[in-house]
Amino acid sequence: xxxxxxxxxxxxxxxxxxxxxxxxxxxxxxxxxxxxxxxxxxxxxxxxxxxxxxxxxxxxxxxxxxxxxxxxxxxxxxxxxxxxxxxxxxxxxxxxxxxxxxxxxxxxxxxxxxxxxxxxxxxxxxxxxxxxxxxxxxxxxxxxxxxxxxxxx
Length: 153
What we know:
It is built from two helices and six strands. It is α+β, with helices and mostly antiparallel strands. Strands 1, 2, 3, 4, 5 and 6 form a six-stranded antiparallel β-sheet that branches. A hairpin with a 2-residue loop joins strand 4 and strand 5 (84-98). Helix 1 (18-32) crosses helix 2 (121-147). The longest helix has 27 residues, at 121-147.
């Protein structure tokens, strides 16, 4: 959307109140994002809105013999109405640390996902596929949480 990575959808859930959907969505957020960086920034039960930052770690195979764990951070927005919700995953960034060696200094990398390029097109396709799979798993997880009754968790 506007040149940025963006996931969005609207899901109907019959016979579940706005308040119950809100409680389930908030629980999903807390259970799904556990790092210190993750936090809920907007928690508006009355208007049915939860917005927070979330990060997950994935492995980037830099070369055949080396790799890095990288943090993929994003803003998660959940809007809730009676019997339905809308999700948005946006504002993606890549964060990782490059250790020093005899040719380079240590550095922290923190940049928008859209600006990040890995070393080869083939390598880029692999890591972007991993990121896409992780976000799709988050979306499935959110859907499961909002559809299941709390006593079934």
